[in-house]
Amino acid sequence: MSTIQLEGTAKTPRVAFHDSPLSIEISGRSIPENSIAFYTPLLEWVDEHLKAGGTVDVSIRLEYFNTSSSKCLMDLLKRVEQSAAEATVLWYYEEDDEDMLEAGEDYDAIIDMPFRLIATAG
Amino acid sequence: MSGILPSDAHSSARYRTTEQDTVELQWFGNIQNQTTDFLMQWMEARLNEVGAQSLQKKRIIRVAIELLQNMHHHAISHDSQPKFSIYATASAAWRIETSNAIDPHNVVELQQTWETLKSKCQNELRSMQREKLAGDARSEHGGGGVGLNEILRKANGCVDMNIENQAGIARVTFIAEIPLQS
To answer: Which residues of A touch B126 (CB under 8 A)?
Structure first.
């Protein structure tokens, strides 16, 4: 069994990646100065654990993310898209946060995977 | 957020501090990781205190994040006067001002990029940002080179940039104004 479990900090998100059953969750805020350093182990985990296929929900529930994190999130979603897994992206946004809704719509337009935009109470 | 940016988008100094404005915060000095942490926490607490609308609070924070990380990544090491300020305006907005020295070799490219972005409407800015998000190109610091685009979008175009030469140093100033209520 392989898991990545990271508590959130003021600048980095809570991360919960599990392989049994497969699940990927990122939540909180993602505004590190060095996004690549933070996300590289997560990308490697995706490559390693989704190559055998399976079904996985990718849950993203972010309050803030900087533009460098936005690229890293795209990298992660592309890795999932290109993997053997059947994935669904669950993009959560607070119902009054039209910026986060727009961001989800933009990822949905780029990524070719089932993509659910889910409004939550603020 | 949609609409055409003001027709005088290229003019500088549309957002000036006036006597009616009050200083919320001024930070003089280099922007480090812990500086950003402190400023973020302070802004969130203060925005809650003054009753900023939830989405406007997030937009202010999102603009501030990009401005601060811009300062952190692009300021030159021997700049003795980086500055980050927040003013509360008479029109119930927060005006965020940043000022830092940059490499003089980057001035022309920065000005050209800024003028291009300022000439776009919100929908065009979104399309440009989406294209860069989808592409493989990365900036030096891992982003897609869309920080300025993000600042303009989240501030609904209400951002000025000015570059001055002071004693042989190129100093860039950004001024973004965002209402506390939409």
So the answer is: 102, 106
H or E stretch covering A112? none
A106: which 2 tokens?
Answer: 């933009």
Indicate the SS3 state at residue B21. coil
How far is B20 from B179, CA to CA, in rounded Å? 15
Q: Give the C-alpha separation, A58 to A105, whole Å.
A: 15
Q: What is the pLDDT along chain A (122 residues), one digit of tens a residue?
A: 589 999 999 999 999 999 999 999 999 999 998 899 999 999 999 999 999 999 999 999 999 999 999 999 999 999 999 999 999 999 999 999 999 999 999 999 999 999 999 999 97
What is the phi/psi pair of residue A111, to 5°?
Answer: -90, 135
CB atoms A70 and B143 under 8 Å: yes
- Cα torsion through B70, B71, B72, B78, rounded to 10: 140
Structure tokens at B156: 């609904």
Quick one: tokens of A30?
Answer: 């993602």
SS3 of residue B14 by DSSP = coil
Q: Which fold has domain B3-179?
A: Heat Shock Protein 90 (3.30.565)
**Closest residue in A to B137 (Cα–Cα):** A71
